C-alpha cells in the first residue's frame, strides 16, 4: 500500500511539474523549435529585454498586482478582525460562507458580472469609457479579498486571547492594543495573504479580460500571441516569473516555520 501511494504521489508531482521543467529547459534553447533542444543559450533572455511590449505588459501586471495586493491585505485584515470579534456564531458562519462564495464562483461568472457592473456605473455617471485601469484594479482587489481573509483569520484564532486584554489593562486603547499586540501576532498570516494576492493577480486572465480595455497585462499579451505564435522569449519571461513566485512562496512560509520552532522550543523548556 505504501509503495502504491508513493507511485501515485510521484505521478502527481510528475504531471504537475514536468510542463514547468520543459518550459524552463526550452527557455535556454538556442533555436526557435519547441520540440527539439538545439543547444544551451541565453539568447532568448537577451531578446526578452529588447521586447518593449512584453516589458510594458510585465510592468503593468506588477503595478496591478502590488496595488491590489496591498489594498486587499489592508481591507482583508480589517475584515478578518471583524469576523473574529463577531460574537454571534450564526452571523459569523454566514459571513464566512459569503467570504467563500467568490472563491467557489467560476472566474468567467465573476468577470462578466463585474464587467456589467462597471459598464452600468460608467454609463450612469457619463464616463467616456467604462473599462480602464481602475476597473481592473477594483476587480483584482475584489477576488483577492477572500484569500487574504482566510489567511489572516486562522492567526487570530491561534493568538492568545489574554494578550489584548492584558494590553487594555495596562492602559492601551483598543486601537493601540490592536496595532501593538494583535498585528505582530497575526503578521505571518498577513504576509502569506499578501504574497498569495500578488500571485493570484499576476496569474489572472479571465477576470482581467472582461474588466479592462486598453490596459494590457502579461496574461492578456500572451493570449493575443497565441493567435499567431508564442516567441521563445515568453518562455524566458515565464521562467523568471516562476522563479520569483517560488522564492516569494518560500519567504511566505519562513515566518510560520520560525513561529512553530519558537513554540516547540518553549514547550521543551517548560
Give the SSE map:
Elements: H1 2-27, H2 43-48, H3 52-85, H4 89-104, H5 107-125, H6 133-158, H7 162-169, H8 174-203, H9 206-211, H10 218-225, H11 233-269
Helix pairs in contact: 1-11, 3-6, 3-8, 3-10, 4-6, 6-8, 7-8, 8-11
Task: List descriptors.
270 residues, mainly alpha, MetI-like fold, 11 helices, 80% helix, globular
Overview of this structure, please?
The protein is mainly alpha-helical and 270 residues long. The chain has one domain: MetI-like (MetI-like fold). The protein has helices at residues 2-27, 43-48, 52-85, 89-104, 107-125, 133-158, 162-169, 174-203, 206-211, 218-225, 233-269. α3 (52-85) packs across α10 and α7 (162-169) crosses α8. The chain is globular. The model has no long low-confidence stretch (mean pLDDT 84).
Tell me the major beta sheet.
Answer: none
DSSP summary, beta strand count: 0
Run of helices and strands = HHHHHHHHHHH
Helix content: over 70%
Q: What structural category characterises the helix and strand content? A: mainly alpha
List low-confidence stretches: none
**CATH superfamily grouping:** MetI-like
Assembly state of the chains shown: single chain
Whole-number tally of structural domains: 1
CATH third-tier fold name: MetI-like fold
Second rung of CATH, namely the architecture:
Orthogonal Bundle
Please give the alpha-carbon distance between the first and last residues: 39 Å
Please give the CATH class. Answer: Mainly Alpha
- Write down the overall mean pLDDT: 84
Strand residue percentage: under 5%
Shape: globular
The total of helices stands at 11
Work out the radius of gyration. Answer: 23 Å
Amino acid at each position: 500500500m505504501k509503495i502504491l501511494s508513493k507511485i501515485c504521489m510521484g505521478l502527481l508531482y510528475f504531471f504537475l511539474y514536468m510542463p514547468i521543467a520543459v518550459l524552463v529547459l526550452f527557455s535556454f534553447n538556442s533555436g526557435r523549435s519547441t520540440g527539439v533542444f538545439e543547444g544551451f543559450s541565453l539568447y532568448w533572455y537577451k531578446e526578452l529585454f529588447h521586447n518593449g511590449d512584453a516589458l510594458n505588459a510585465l510592468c503593468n501586471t506588477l503595478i496591478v498586482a502590488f496595488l491590489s495586493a496591498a489594498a486587499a491585505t489592508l481591507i482583508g485584515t480589517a475584515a478578518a478582525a471583524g469576523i473574529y470579534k463577531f460574537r454571534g456564531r450564526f452571523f459569523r458562519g454566514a459571513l464566512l460562507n459569503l467570504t467563500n462564495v467568490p472563491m467557489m464562483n467560476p472566474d468567467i461568472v465573476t468577470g462578466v458580472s463585474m464587467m456589467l457592473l462597471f459598464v452600468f456605473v460608467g454609463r450612469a455617471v457619463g464616463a467616456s469609457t467604462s473599462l480602464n485601469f481602475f476597473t481592473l484594479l477594483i476587480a483584482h482587489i475584489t477576488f483577492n479579498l477572500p484569500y487574504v481573509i482566510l489567511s489572516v483569520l486562522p492567526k487570530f484564532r491561534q493568538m492568545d486571547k489574554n494578550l489584548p486584554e492584558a494590553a487594555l489593562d495596562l492602559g492601551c486603547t483598543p486601537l493601540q492594543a490592536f496595532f501593538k499586540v494583535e498585528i505582530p501576532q497575526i503578521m505571518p498570516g498577513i504576509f502569506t495573504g499578501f504574497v498569495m494576492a500578488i500571485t493570484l493577480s499576476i496569474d489572472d486572465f479571465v477576470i482581467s479580460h472582461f474588466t479592462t480595455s486598453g490596459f494590457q497585462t502579461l496574461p492578456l499579451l500572451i493570449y493575443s500571441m497565441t493567435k499567431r505564435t508564442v516567441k521563445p522569449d515568453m518562455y524566458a519571461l515565464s521562467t523568471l516569473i516562476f522563479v520569483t513566485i517560488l522564492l516569494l512562496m518560500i519567504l511566505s512560509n519562513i515566518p510560520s516555520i520560525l513561529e512553530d520552532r519558537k513554540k516547540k522550543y518553549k514547550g521543551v523548556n517548560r
